[in-house]
Amino acid sequence: MQRRKIQFVPRYEVFCYHGSLANQIVHPAHLCFKLPDELSMEEGVMCEPLSVGVHACRRANIGPETRVLVMGAGPIGLITMLAARAFGAPRIIMADVDQACLSVAMELGANEAIKVSTSIQDVGAEIEKIKEAMGDGIDLTFRRYFKPMELYGTK
């Protein structure tokens, strides 16, 4: 295994993932932000995923009449759901392949959680489940991953 390999693309100013899940890491200072003393490390680590969810909801102009479907109940999907709720979305449905993630989504305030399949043969049934859950329809869909069901379901 090669050590001290630079995983940085200067043109994009993005720090890549290899080795970034560590207690300490050397990182260019101009790409770092010092957390305020009153913010814990646990709170600080949530800044990036929270910014993703809030930014997505802002760009989508979510309001009190926006019915939302979030496909993917991992960390970013869950935070996007919470941000959509904070922006006033009255009905939020979560869809995922993992029942444990969907249980967390329900605990955090999703109106409904739908377990979907990864099989393309089940696409029609999956779309019907989502349509039934949304009732009057979906105004906006966020997706965290790309599966065949999404491609066919958006037509």
Q: Helicity range of the residues?
A: 25-40%
Euclidean distance between termini CA atoms = 46 Å
Tally of separate helices = 6
Name of the top-level CATH class of the domain at 47-153 = Alpha Beta
Spatial strand arrangement across the major sheet? 5-4-3-6
Mean pLDDT: 81
Q: Give unreliable regions as ranges.
A: 1-9
Number of DSSP strands?
6
The SSE string, one letter per element, is EEHHEHEHEHEH
Task: Please summarize the sheet with the most strands.
Answer: 4 strands, parallel
Protein name: Alcohol dehydrogenase-like C-terminal domain-containing protein
InterPro entries: ADH-like_C, GroES-like_sf, NAD(P)-bd_dom_sf
Organism: Cuscuta europaea (European dodder)
Keywords: Membrane, Metal-binding, Oxidoreductase, Transmembrane, Transmembrane helix, Zinc
